[in-house]
């Protein structure tokens, strides 16, 4: 079954750390953006190396705008009490291309399965709030080809109408690459024909996600 592409997703604004203390145990949530599964795994390995004496270094990551890759690890905590609630928190908040590692230093008080689930999931939610997230929307890339004479005015018109100019290429003609929401394409084609008196050529390209 083909996956439906997400129109938008949320990701971590920046790498960072958030700490919480629950019943004398320290929970340190390290969060980072991760463009690939390899990046996520390298981040997990780095955090584990930074906390070799911790009781547990549990992790969860989601890669892909459609959440194609999802992994979680309890790292010795009772099955399903750490990595899974961490992953569920990321999924519930529509977070993609991100990795979370929760480092626990045991403080001598047992939390029980329910307490662990709340602690691990909760600290990820708190870290997302503390570090901030950014929303990335799906856009279609399109190339507008115009002659040199019209290029400056067309660029200005594109920007003044709120279109996102991604790239400019100068050759025998000028190619202006723009990112458009899929739903705006018909209106954009009509606008472009009107504003350039039918002289511009529009070529549709692939897709990208951008803020």
Structure commentary:
By secondary structure, the protein is an alpha+beta fold. The protein has five helices and ten strands. Strands 1, 7, 8, 9 and 10 form a five-stranded antiparallel sheet that branches. The protein has a five-stranded antiparallel sheet with strand order 2-3-6-4-5, sandwiched between helices. Strand 4 and strand 5 (69-73) form a beta hairpin. Helix 2 packs across helix 3. The longest helix is centred in the middle third of the chain and has 20 residues, at 112-131. The protein is elongated, with a radius of gyration of 23 Å. It starts with 7 loop residues before the first strand and ends with a strand. The model has no long low-confidence stretch (mean pLDDT 92).
Q: What is the average per-residue confidence, as pLDDT, rounded to a whole number?
A: 92
Number of helices: 5
The SSE string, one letter per element, is EEEHEEHEHEHEEHE
Strand portion: 35-45%
Shape: elongated
How would you sum up the major sheet?
A: 5 strands, antiparallel
Q: How many E-type strands? A: 10
The low-confidence runs, each spanning 5 or more residues with pLDDT under 50, are none
Proportion of helical residues: 25-40%
Distance between the termini: 29 Å
Structural class: alpha+beta
Mind telling me the C-alpha Rg?
Answer: 23 Å
Domain UPF0029: 144-198
Domain Impact N-terminal: 24-128
Protein name: YigZ family protein
Pfam families: DUF1949, Impact_N
């Amino acid at each position: 079954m083909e996956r439906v592409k997400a129109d938008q997703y949320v990701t971590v604004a920046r790498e960072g750390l958030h700490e919480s203390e629950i019943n004398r145990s320290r929970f340190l949530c390290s969060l980072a953006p991760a463009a690939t599964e390899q990046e996520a795994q390298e981040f997990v390995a780095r955090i584990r190396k930074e906390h070799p004496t911790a009781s547990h270094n549990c992790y969860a990551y989601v890669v892909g705008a459609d959440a194609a890759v999802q992994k979680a690890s309890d790292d010795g905590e009772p099955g399903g009490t750490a990595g899974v609630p961490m992953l569920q928190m990321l999924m519930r908040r529509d977070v993609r291309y991100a990795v979370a590692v929760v480092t626990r230093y045991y403080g001598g008080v047992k939390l029980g399965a329910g307490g662990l689930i709340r602690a691990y999931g909760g600290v990820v939610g708190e870290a997302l709030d503390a570090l901030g997230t950014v929303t990335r929307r799906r856009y279609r890339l399109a190339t507008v080809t115009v002659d040199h004479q019209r290029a400056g005015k067309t660029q200005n018109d594109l920007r003044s109408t709120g279109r996102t100019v991604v790239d400019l290429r100068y050759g025998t003609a000028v190619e202006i690459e723009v990112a458009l929401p899929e739903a705006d394409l018909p209106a954009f084609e009509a606008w472009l024909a009107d504003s350039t008196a039918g002289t511009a050529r529009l070529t549709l390209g692939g897709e990208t996600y951008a803020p």
